[in-house]
Design brief:
The chain is mostly helical and 894 residues long. It is built from 41 helices and 11 strands. Helix 14 links the parallel strand 5 and strand 6. Helix 34 runs parallel beside helix 36. The longest helix is centred in the middle third of the chain and has 21 residues. It is elongated, with a radius of gyration of 39 Å. It starts with a strand and ends with a helix.
Length: 894
């Protein structure tokens, strides 16, 4: 729906065919919150136990809607006032209210400095609204107000004051007459002479004496227990702040036909004061406390701190017992969830949804009922806005500005940052808070120590104050709980900042260096096994180092820690780490590409992995240690794609370098010997590898090929145990998947548990090859099942997609075991044919031997056998025995 004529836009163009409207977009959720709060308020004040004069009961009459500058709080406040005053102004989607029509009295008060509202005006505005609606004196309050006015504004008629301040135009001139009526009625009640009835001091003095003496003539006012005390008090501004107690009492005793429920909407509350000057806030809070039968809807940039016990002495009523709905869920710095009937009355006004942004832009400017801003531009503006209405508004003005030049606006015109966003954001921040804000804009997320260290401050107080601001969002379950609103963050970093304390390029560079060092310190101070902290620090550190061309520093050690666990979480956001190394790049950019390649190889064809790692190595930007990492994993990818010679050369180069991956490279060379069928050489190498070379796994890989799966399973168990002792989850899962595969050959029942455990260990990991090993284990376990052929074909397709050529022979071996169990010689012949094609380079050629051993067939005449550890005949007997045992097992379970 629309909210009226947009004069600023209207006067920005000569085109009279353009219709400019102030668009108001939904905010249905916020209306629901106000409606729920009002419904609960009505139930509370109508309950028998409610006492308007109870000064000790907790107050639940406040709802706070806070949010970043430009989010639309003032527009929402105005719309709430209109919707509460007139059902015709309520959008249809807001639904019908759950309270009687005509009972609600909305009173909106703008506390912005530009509005010039002082405390006197606030009190008078509430009374004037009641005067206009109720139409009768409220004598307890009116007598006190009249006394105050004559004492503090001598010689100035209240009529003139109301006219000059614009209040008379808004509410009419009924209040002065009601004040005079209240004075005359009091004089008559006290039987004072007519002349005295106009002298407020004498009337109030006589009234106080009558109240003290409990005369029957003043019984109408005697029910207000504190009236005499307030009339005796010095009539100054402090006393005025207590008079609303009299107003609340008068409202509570109105007859049914006149009864109203005030809903006071205090807007722009951030302009009331700051954290060191709370004089006006103290007076306003006192009014809120003393009028518990009014609902107060407060809109501003920040949360109300009234429930913070640390403000005791600065405000009259503080702490969670006084304001249970305003108390934070956990700490003074944690935002409460959406409000419920029992609390949580501080609500962050959220960004517009994309569809609301589009609706806003379509309605703001139109011609002949059609949106003036075309679809494609609305889409660009919406995506850039992050849902912030101020950005949408500024973009509309930019659209008109470009049209004034005679040019048609294009999408590129809105790849634009608005400095106005910065000024709105920084407006009410202290210098230290501004400094912290700019510093944390360099970070994706942060906590208090990280923000303080990045800002180079010695104390956390500015960061503690900053995180209370609405443009700081919170995820209590995140590694770092706080992050900046996306648009605010990007604008602060990129827009031309004209503020007095703006940063130079050197300032930004030093801040980046501080933030980078702080991340390194957090990672180095954490637990060696804190994987979440490692990955988080890597992601943020790599971004900082790449953007600001920083030395790698601690990132090198963090990269080694990252690969050590073989977990492979994504390390780069979607817009980086894509393999494009053209243009100007830094060492950090190359490291991002390296780690991203290692993670993505679980989802890409291994040939693509080779290409990307080759590109990384060709840049020559990485230090020698990290180049070794790229060389080693390229050698692995070469092996997976069947390029054995290239793989061996890579392993040998890494092993000769004697760096961190030398043991792993020597393991790779042992694997190469095994793949070539040189089992004695591989066996001898396994004895020298130790834990770093994963000796147990290398030994297991040898033993099951010799037809000894039980010994291999024991070796894999030892490897898994050793990996768990070192906290290497990926290696533990890999050993367990291979253990499941080997157990499946000789004990399908036990294999069930081993396969289940493998899947449990893989649940939080991203290891494609290991997952496929577990799948092959299920095929071997189910050998002899006629339905197995379809599953085998599915897995063949998956291996082709992944480019894991080196695993294809293992899958064919599992298929051959199944076929041998069934004595399906035709299928076996087809499998041998596929194995011949897959192993023509020489690697894995011994799988043909094993297939013939399992089926009890002779070796092909032209076949060159491998060097078996225990000789060909012994190995043949072992494999044939495994098939016969499985056949007996199936026969016994038919």
């Amino acid at each position: 729906m629309t909210g009226g004529r947009d004069l600023r836009a209207l006067f920005s163009t000569n085109d009279r065919t353009v219709t400019a409207e102030e668009a108001f977009t939904n905010r249905q959720a916020q209306w629901a919150l106000v409606a729920d709060a009002l419904t609960e308020h009505l139930q509370r004040i109508s309950s028998p136990g409610f006492d308007v004069e109870d000064l000790e009961a907790p107050r639940k009459n406040v709802l706070v809607l806070h949010g970043v500058g430009g989010i639309g709080k003032t527009t929402l406040s105005r719309k709430l006032e209109a919707a509460l005053a007139d059902a015709g102004q309520r959008p249809p989607q807001w639904g019908e209210p759950g309270w009687p029509a005509g009972r609600i009295l909305p009173v909106r008060i703008d506390l912005a400095r530009s509005a010039g509202t002082d405390f006197e005006q606030l009190v008078l505005t509430i009374r004037l609204a009641l005067a206009a609606r109720v139409g009768r004196p409220l004598p307890a309050f009116d007598l006190a107000l009249r006394r105050y006015w004559e004492a503090t504004h001598p010689g100035e008629p209240i009529e003139e004051y109301l006219r000059r301040g614009g209040l008379a135009a808004r509410f009419g001139q009924s209040l002065p007459d009601q004040l005079q009526s209240a004075l005359g009625e009091a004089a008559q009640m006290l039987a004072l002479p007519g002349m005295l009835g106009s002298v407020v001091g004498q009337v109030t003095g006589a009234l106080v004496r009558a109240l003290r003496e409990r005369r029957q003539t003043v019984r109408a006012l005697a029910g207000c227990a504190r009236l005499a005390d307030l009339l005796e008090a010095e009539p100054d501004l402090d006393a005025l702040s207590y008079y609303p107690h009299l107003l609340a009492w008068e409202i509570s005793r109105l007859p049914d036909r006149k009864r109203v429920i005030p809903v006071v909407l205090l807007d722009t509350f951030e302009d009331v004061g700051d954290r060191t000057r709370r004089d006006l806030e103290r007076l306003i809070q006192r009014v809120v406390w003393l009028m518990p039968n009014a609902l107060w809807v407060i809109t501003g940039r920040g949360r109300l701190q009234w429930a913070d016990e640390g403000l005791q002495g600065q405000l009259d009523f503080t702490g969670p017992q006084a304001w249970p709905g305003l108390a934070a869920a956990d700490t003074p710095y944690t935002r409460s969830p959406l409000p419920t009937t029992s609390g949580g009355r501080q609500v962050l006004v959220g960004d517009f949804a994309p569809e609301d942004c589009d609706d806003y832009l379509a309605r703001r400017l139109s011609r002949d009922g059609q949106p003036l801003i075309p679809d494609d531009l609305r889409t660009v503006i919406t995506s850039r806005s992050h849902g912030l209405p101020l950005y949408l508004d500024l973009s509309v003005m930019r659209f008109l500005e470009i049209r004034r030049t005679g040019r048609t606006p294009t999408a590129r015109d809105f790849d634009h940052d608005f400095p106005a966003l910065i000024s709105r954001t920084l407006a009410d921040l202290t210098p230290d808070e501004r400094h912290v804000l700019r510093s944390v804009s360099l970070l994706d997320a942060f906590d208090l120590p990280l923000a303080t260290r990045a800002a180079g401050l010695a104390h956390e107080a500015p960061a503690m104050r900053l995180i209370e601001r609405p443009f700081v969002r919170e995820n209590p379950f995140g590694l770092w709980p706080y992050h900046l609103h996306g648009l605010i963050r990007s604008t602060i970093q990129s827009a031309d900042d004209h503020s007095d304390d703006r940063w130079s390029r050197s300032d930004w560079q030093r801040a980046a260096e501080r933030a980078f060092a702080a991340l390194g310190e957090q990672w180095q101070a954490g637990s060696d096994r804190d994987r979440l902290l490692l990955v988080g620090c890597l992601r943020q550190g790599l971004r900082l180092a790449g953007t600001h061309r920083l030395e790698l520093g601690w990132l090198a050690d963090a990269a080694w820690a990252y690969i050590s666990d073989s977990v492979w979480e994504p390390i780069a956001p979607p817009d980086t780490g894509t393999g494009d190394l053209s243009g100007t790049v830094t060492a950090a950019d190359i490291l991002v590409e390296l780690l991203s390649t290692l993670a993505r190889r679980q989802h890409e064809h291994r040939a693509r992995t080779v290409e990307r790692l080759t590109a990384v190595l060709d840049t020559r930007l990485l230090p020698a240690g990290l180049e070794e990492m790229a060389l080693y994993y390229r050698a692995k990818a070469y092996r997976d794609t069947g390029h054995s010679e290239e793989s061996r050369r890579g392993y040998q180069q890494v092993a000769d370098g004697n760096g961190r991956l030398a043991p792993a490279a020597r393991r790779g060379l042992a694997h190469s010997a095994r793949l070539a069928g040189d089992f004695p050489t591989a066996h001898a190498a396994a004895q020298t590898l130790g834990w770093e070379g994963r000796h147990h796994r290398v030994l297991g890989d040898l033993l099951w090929l010799q037809g000894e799966p039980e010994r291999a399973a024991a070796a894999y168990l030892a490897g898994r145990t050793e990996a768990e002792q070192h906290g290497i989850a990926g290696e533990a899962a890999h050993n367990q998947a291979l253990r499941a595969l080997t157990v499946a050959f000789y004990d399908p029942n036990q294999a069930d548990d081993e396969i289940d455990l493998a899947h449990q260990l893989l649940a939080s990991l991203d290891l494609r090859a290991t997952t496929i090993n577990a799948a092959i284990a299920t095929l071997i376990r189910d050998a002899g099942d006629p339905a197995l052929d379809e599953r085998i074909q599915t897995l063949r397709s998956e291996l082709d997609t992944a480019g894991l050529i080196s695993m294809a022979p293992a899958l064919e071996l599992a298929a051959a075991f199944h076929q041998a169990v069934l004595d399906d010689h035709d299928a076996l012949a087809a499998t041998v044919s596929r194995l011949r094609e897959q192993t023509q380079g020489g690697d894995y050629a011994y799988y043909i031997d094993i297939v013939t051993f399992m089926a009890g067939l002779p070796l092909p005449a032209d076949h060159t056998p491998p060097r078996w550890l225990d000789g060909e005949q012994t190995t043949r007997s072992r494999w044939r025995a495994l098939v016969i045992t499985r056949q007996h097992h199936l026969h016994n379970h038919q």
